[in-house]
Amino acid sequence: MTDGLDLSRVRFSRTGRLIVDDVDVTVPAGALGALLGPNGAGKSTLLHLIAGIERADAGALAFAGSDLAALRRRDRARRIALAEQETHDAPELRVHEVVALGRTPHLGPWSGLGERDHAVVAESLAVLGLEPLAMREYATLSGGERQRVNLARALAQEPELLLLDEPTNHLDVRAQLTSLELLRTLAASGRTVLAALHDLGLAAAYADHVIVLDGGRVVASGVPADVLEPRLIREVWGVEAEVLAHPSTGRPLIAYSGVAAPHAVEGALDVRR
Amino acid sequence: MTLRRVEEPLRVEPVETSPGGGFETLAALAPQPAKRRRARTALWAVALGAALVASVVAAVTIGPAGLAPSDVVASVLAHLGIGESTLSPLRDGIVWELRMPRVLTAAAVGAGLALCGAVMQALTRNPLADPYLLGLSSGASVGAVIVIVLGVGLLLPLAAFAGALAALVATIALAGAAGRGSGGPGGGLSPTRTVLAGLAVSSMFGAVTSLVIFWSATGDSYREILNWLLGSLAGTDWVSVAIAGGALVAIGIPLIASARTLDAFAFGDAAASALGVHVGRSRVLLLGGTALLTGALVAVSGSIGFVGLILPHGVRLLVGSRHRALLPLSALAGALFLVWADTAARTLFDPRELPVGIITALIGGPVFAVLLMRRRVS
């Protein structure tokens, strides 16, 4: 048990197919964790299990020492927020109304938003630089703007554990780095952050801790410099890459050189774990 | 843990600069837009409420007998035990026994249908959802007609509820089965499939209603069939007011209290669940509530269509989509709308009466078409 997120032997299957297979994950409080893996590795499902959207078939999920399965849904939503990928069909709501949805678990059925709720909403908008868009209809926003609004909504939940599914989708380079720097700041303030990312370079540059999923199993986890090495990248993603040290930060820098030859991927299966 | 504690380090530069500088002043007063919206909602509520009261009085005066608004007020006050009625017993009967119950039933039915429409649109995330279009009203009619034929009138609202529930389950099951295996957003319950399934279900239940009436009737059954299929408020009395009004209060209040839950569905089931909503339980309870309310309304009025479609969309244009404002205002607007639609139905071709559903469909059809084009539902 740690102060952070602690998953042990978590298993989940849907329509007979095992999607999350015996997963152990630890993200310490105050750390920015990156969940990596190819498409279909089970990243989103694992985030849904932690957020309580789906229930694990087996295993233990704990956060800050308390069993997540025992928490009431509303209490869980006060402590854990999930910022999902931008959705296809947008509701007819303004940006500040969408962010105010994040207050839902903190409010009773008849109570309106109080002064404090308004302050939290305003601050969540401010943190993501969304004040200029506050009165805009969500449906009129670009993909990148929606992504930031979704993150602001999650922040308005005032979570201790923040989960993010592909938070850098649709964002330009500056916005990607800004988002990850924000996540690092949030982690530094004592929150636990776990983000599913596609971009290995971003994970290498910003995460304190990376977890690599493949076929529903954890194939590696640890600090980026230990985990992200050429062989693992070839085995999991099927691409050839060299890993250098960043000249100024010293963090791993991934230089792709091409798609790996099929036999190199197949032959690697037995050394995965 | 609050955001405040980490306010300073959290400050990051805006990722993009705003295109129009004018919004920045608004944003500086961040809670302001929410407050302004609340004030606007309250204003609309007062306006619609006042219009409704005035319309009820006005609608009672309309028709042969040449009543004045003051006559209506005097009669109502006398029956409530305040003052003496100056009206002749005949004219007093027209106000108190004929028109007032009918107008109040129209108000309750209109309010309830609009409320059901708004709730169903949120829960199915389908802008075209409405108790009539998804077959609930037809199902309720079957239940109602069967108990009337069997002569067990006391069970009327209950049977209508059972019919509405059966139709709801049939529509959702059919839409889900038709959509199985087709991926994409919304999965099986896409708006189009749901409306098509509702069409199939309501056609079938409509046919059953017609058959039952035709088979049981001794004389001219066509008028009766029309009244159930298109909806009519002819012949409503204080019992109708009690059924429709009672159901509106008993079910409408919990529905309005669920506004925040309905808001949370805006981004889909997973997002609602992450916000702490019991998704499955809420959907069953709230859809069950709409079926119950629809059943009670249809039991007194037949299947009046499109009220649940027109009014919520109209109200959204005025106050936005947050359900705390949308639900009560839709109910008020629905009441106002149906009071006037029914007044038109009984006076346009006086002395003959039009089923009120014809009027609501004349207005609702084009609204449906506009929604279809605007959403490019495919």
Automatic annotation (TrEMBL), chain A:
Keyword set, alphabetical order: ATP-binding, Nucleotide-binding, Transport
Highest taxon of source: Bacteria
An MF annotation (GO) of this entry: ATP binding
Residue stretches making up the ABC transporter domain: 5-240
Coiled coil region boundaries: none
Keyword hit for ATP-binding: yes
InterPro entries: AAA+_ATPase, ABC_transporter-like_ATP-bd, ABC_transporter-like_CS, P-loop_NTPase
PANTHER family: ABC TRANSPORTER ATP-BINDING PROTEIN (PTHR42794:SF2), HEMIN IMPORT ATP-BINDING PROTEIN HMUV (PTHR42794)
Identification of the protein by name: Iron complex transport system ATP-binding protein
Native source species: Agromyces cerinus subsp. cerinus
Lineage summary: Bacteria, Bacillati, Actinomycetota, Actinomycetes, Micrococcales
Automatic annotation (TrEMBL), chain B:
Similarity-based family: Belongs to the binding-protein-dependent transport system permease family. FecCD subfamily.
MF GO annotations: transmembrane transporter activity
Topology of the protein relative to the lipid bilayer: Multi-pass membrane protein
Any matching Pfam family: FecCD
GO CC term (a single one): plasma membrane
Upper taxonomic lineage: Bacteria, Bacillati, Actinomycetota, Actinomycetes, Micrococcales
Gene3D superfamilies: ABC transporter involved in vitamin B12 uptake, BtuC
Membrane-spanning residues: 42-66, 72-91, 103-123, 143-174, 195-218, 238-257, 286-311, 323-342, 354-373
Keywords associated with the record: Cell membrane, Membrane, Transmembrane, Transmembrane helix, Transport
Subcellular location: Cell membrane
Name of the protein in its database record: Iron complex transport system permease protein
UniProt keyword annotation of Isomerase present: no
Biological process (GO), any one: siderophore-iron import into cell
Primary location recorded for the protein, binned into one broad class: membrane
